[in-house]
Design goal:
single chain; 414 residues; alpha/beta; six-stranded parallel β-sheet; 15 helices
Length: 414
């Protein structure tokens, strides 16, 4: 089969699926992306496209999102047309993310080619990030700006033949009128590759020896250290955690930028803001900021961890949570709806109030002080992820079934 994947930041959510298709053989696979340094995957032809248009800095706020999305969409479809003309490639199926508008015009180019679109998030004034934190003031224009962001999925639900959501919580963010076209299935976690390792060790910068499972390591992982992912709450829990666990070390993974939400006014970002707030209340010698790390080091950190903290506002669930569960981490997470879809308190992890650093600290201390009382959580978490989120046995068969339903019998994947 001829596949065309479209995602501005290759491989995006298609990391596992595209590699499986390439390794299976028998397919021609092209990937359109804006990412200049996109990974070179065996069996995948990567082509970089440029947006046809970008809005000016002072573009009108209510139309800016669509202006940018249409520029992405027209740039992507122009690049696809050039691929067909110059390389003779015409897809049997298009798979891509609708969020940046890249799929918007493909039906105008190839009306008979089916499209599966990834619907990640629909912006509402309740139930999500907006309005969740009472300390954050909501602009009077927020309802209008929020709805303006939804112009892209609203246009694309008619563009695609089928939509895909990774979780039920994300599906339920969209209007009910969307649901007839949306199937729910996670992108997939390679639980066969994400296993606990009692013999793991890893060097941490300033320490003379590697850390192992014998050390009392607490981990926190986010793409960036920001309020959406509860970095401020985690930091405010550190004074009590470190005071009550004098041998514990905290390893913090994440960049100092902002992926979602508002940026800190502090010149050092939110990390600098929290350091200024906490000052000498924290034993900084036992706090390790390691930035963004290679995936192999992320795995080792989670395997070493005695307690893994995952915090988020009501937003898209991070792969890192499910990956940590697959490695049998003892999870302490925020008690919000998207997390509750994956974690059951007392069975597969422990849930605390997102806004309560003292409750977070108390729960982490309890895990470290009485590991025997929480020894069941890691194995149960892994069993849950294997059953519900495993790529090879659970998610891949569902994705292939949805793909096969859209293509002629002779093109279907056996």
């Amino acid at each position: 089969m001829n596949f065309l994947f479209v995602h501005q930041n290759m491989p995006g959510q298609y990391r596992e699926l595209i590699q499986w298709l390439a390794q299976a053989g028998g397919h021609r696979i092209y990937f359109l992306t804006q990412r200049q340094n996109a990974p070179q995957l065996p069996g995948v032809e990567t082509r970089v496209y440029r947006p046809h248009h970008r809005p000016e800095e002072k573009a009108y706020g209510l139309s800016r999102i669509w202006e940018e999305a249409s520029g992405n969409g027209f740039g992507a479809v122009n690049a696809a047309q050039q691929i067909e003309t110059r390389e003779g490639f015409r897809p049997d199926l298009i798979i891509g993310h609708v969020g940046w508008g890249e799929l918007s015009f493909f039906k105008q180019l190839w009306p008979d080619v089916p499209i599966i679109g990834y619907f990640e998030y629909y912006y509402n004034m309740t139930g999500g990030m907006v309005g969740f934190d009472p300390a954050e003031k909501i602009s009077a224009h927020a309802p209008y700006l929020n709805h303006a962001r939804n112009i892209v999925p609203l246009a694309n639900i008619e563009t695609v033949d089928l939509g895909h959501c990774p979780t039920h919580w994300q599906r339920d963010r969209f209007p009910e009128s969307f649901h007839r076209k949306l199937y729910v299935c996670h992108d997939g976690i390679r639980t066969d590759q994400l296993l606990p390792d009692p013999d793991v060790s890893l060097r941490l910068g300033r320490l003379a020896r590697p850390v192992t499972r014998e050390d009392e390591i607490i981990t926190y992982v986010a793409r960036n250290l920001e309020k959406t992912r509860g970095f401020h709450t985690m930091m405010r829990a550190l004074p009590r955690i470190l005071a009550e666990r004098p041998h514990a070390r905290v390893v913090i993974v994440g960049g100092n930028e902002v992926s979602y939400g508002k940026q800190s006014d502090h010149p050092g970002g939110l990390r600098g803001e929290m350091a200024a707030e906490l000052q000498d209340r924290v034993d900084w010698d036992r706090v390790h900021f390691v930035g963004k790390v290679p995936y192999s080091d992320f795995k080792k950190l989670v395997q070493i961890s005695r307690c893994h903290i995952y915090l988020t506002m009501p937003f898209v669930l991070s792969w890192s949570l499910l990956e940590a569960m697959s490695m049998q981490a003892t999870i302490v997470a925020s008690d919000v709806a998207p997390v509750r879809e994956a974690v059951t308190h007392g069975k597969t992890g422990l849930l605390v109030d997102f806004f309560d650093p003292d409750a977070l600290a108390a729960q982490v201390v309890e895990v470290l002080a009485h590991p025997q009382d929480h020894a069941h959580l890691g194995p149960a978490a892994r069993a849950h992820v294997v059953e519900n989120y495993d790529f090879l046995t659970r998610c891949l068969p569902e994705h292939l079934a949805q793909i096969n339903a859209l293509v002629p019998e002779g093109k279907r994947i056996g």
